[in-house]
Design brief:
The protein has a single domain, classed as Orthogonal Bundle (Arc Repressor Mutant, subunit A), CATH 1.10.10. Helix content is about 45%, strand content about 10%. The radius of gyration is 13 Å and the shape is globular. The chain starts with a helix and ends in a 12-residue tail after the last strand. It holds the Pfam family DUF2087.
Length: about 100
């Protein structure tokens, strides 16, 4: 399956019409598609405190703790002294590589 078609399929299957997640995928490749889709909506030139990150994630899913942790673990964001910043895309774990 072509990468864009795969990505579109995952987004269609795991998000509702309102853009919220129906569930967090358990398969890593699918989870990374979702995380990348979400983090792309953050402003890479801005820093965020933990409350702002939580509020951002809550637009998509209520389990902001898990998703925030996944953002950090998978290299999408950097956390230092409870301040979050979006990493360069080169640092992101890529679903395309799985």
């Amino acid at each position: 399956m072509e990468k864009q078609a795969f990505q579109d399929s995952i987004l269609r299957n795991f998000t509702g019409a309102d853009g919220r997640l129906k569930s967090i995928p358990s398969q890593k490749k699918k989870k990374l598609v979702i995380l990348e889709h979400m983090v792309a909506k953050l402003d890479p030139s801005k820093t965020y405190n933990e409350k702002e990150v939580n509020e951002f994630i809550k637009q998509f899913h209520d389990d902001f703790c898990t998703i925030r942790r996944e953002f950090v673990i998978n290299g999408y964001v950097n956390r230092e002294n409870s301040i979050y910043s979006v990493n360069d895309k080169e640092e992101w774990n890529k679903w395309q590589d799985l």
